Amino acid sequence: MLIKEYRITNNCSNAEYQVAQLYNVAEMSKAESGGGEGVEILTNEPYEDEYRKGQYTHK
């Protein structure tokens, strides 16, 4: 079996990426909500367990 690994360079830091991700989530939620009711971000925090890590956002 042949395993190939691809790497994509990123031109921003991890902290900048997380801010951009939160902005994108907020903008998409606002666009999908319709009717002008808006979206409120209640929780936005990093998480890490034994299998994965990421960003938890509760809207």
TrEMBL record:
Q: Choose one Gene Ontology CC annotation of this protein and give it.
A: cytoplasm
Where does the record place the region Disordered?
Answer: 34-59
Q: Which SUPFAM superfamilies match?
A: Bet v1-like
The protein's GO terms of the molecular function aspect are: phosphatidylcholine binding; phosphatidylcholine transporter activity; phosphatidylinositol binding; phosphatidylinositol transfer activity
Specify one Pfam family. Answer: IP_trans
Q: Which residues form the Phosphatidylinositol transfer protein N-terminal domain?
A: 1-59
Q: What is this protein called?
A: Phosphatidylinositol transfer protein N-terminal domain-containing protein
